Amino acid sequence: MELQIPPPVTSDSLMFKVHRREPELVTPAKATPRELKLLSDIDDQEGLRFHIPSIFFYRNNPTAYSDPVAVIRRALAETLVYYYPLAGRLREGPNRKLAVDCSGEGVLFIEADADVTLVEFEKKDVLRPPFPCFEELLFDIEGSSEVLNAPMILIQVTRLKCGGFIFAVRINHAISDAAGLSLFLKTIGEFARGSHVPTVAPVWERHLLSARVPASVTHVHREYDEQDTESATVDGGALVSRSFFFGGAEMSVIRRLLPQNLANRSTDLETLTAFLWRYRTAALRTDPNKEMRVIFIVNARSKFRNPPLPPGYYGNAFAFPVAIATVRELTEKPLEFALRLVKEAKWSVTEEYMRSLADLMVTKGRPRFSIDGAYLISDVRNFADIQFGVWGKPVYGGIGTAGVVDFPGSSFYVSFENSKGERGIVVPVCLPEKAMKRFVEELDGVFNGQLELNGRSKIPDKLIMSSL
Fold first, then answer.
1. Is the peptide bond before 85 cis (omega within 30 degrees of 0)?
2. Is position 305 within any domain?
3. Do the beta carbons of residue 215 and residue 359 sit within 8 Å?
4. Least crowded by CB within 10 Å, which of 173, 239, 377, 399?
């Protein structure tokens, strides 16, 4: 039975219809244990109690005679035998402690068809975030985005007229991070290609990231500072989103703003994060004495030694280290000032830092990270390798929008190949309309060599990729 057909999905340059079938629950292909599993104290923080979406586009494979929807549905059921907690429901216990009721009820799955081709997305230059049609390609079933007592995963597979398809997924962030979701999706891909067991066996072991007894907060975690929620909002008109592409040429320009020895010792992600933080701050034009923050998410799996985290650990295992500086410091000092702060924050994450963080959660009531003056960066470039069946790697694999839930001040680094075949990083940015205009002007000055001028030249078209 089909749901009511919605009106055509539109953007400034693309229009199509999506026909969805009734959502269903996909359960594990075999019987799984019925038990209650506690989340870790890294999982169990207020700032992770939401669902986060991602989207993947795949080309038609002329040699594929199978239906991608059927292949993925079957592979999902087989994967859930190994990842059976994901087929359960989150419950809340004493002191708001979260646990998974491994009920085997299943994950939500939607089969859909769209009367559009992948080539049309490419020709209209809308194959990157923010996707104007995202809500139709990952339909929000009423009640499905609740944190407690609801499916923890929603998947929609949409066939395209050309034989390609779109795979969209939304997962409860309390149960997994980007690295954990990647393990889950890669396992679906393996089963879709005919495997019978996962290459990397999933591991629960959430106790490895639980608080110590007694708890001992040994680090200063300013990312969890108490915040004034009123000051966390920024005026400047309606929010708008744009994507920006940074390839080799753009990164070379940015590195020329730095001392050579520092540029050589810094990764592209560190450099780009400092750059975006500085120029985004300049565009916001807030009080010069206001503290601005950049939160550079760090995957801490490699930090653990005693004991190490198993390769198949799919829980949250990252930190929100924060760099802090005033508006005046960021805008008046050279870029190297911001870069050194970003590097210090990144390298502050150690095994003891993570133990201290888990202890902080239980001693401070599982606080949310501070969003006042904050800009959050998360690297999801690993999604570019997610393959299903015979369809190969995605044309696009990553986040669907800039911002998350009620926090628009977040961006994601997505691996991307532009229309010229250049490989780089695409970054969706969300800002108030006036601030976005100034942000584009700031970048225009950098990439046109006019740092000290008020010229009217245009920023390179390949840098600005979209707007909403």
1. no
2. yes
3. yes
4. 239
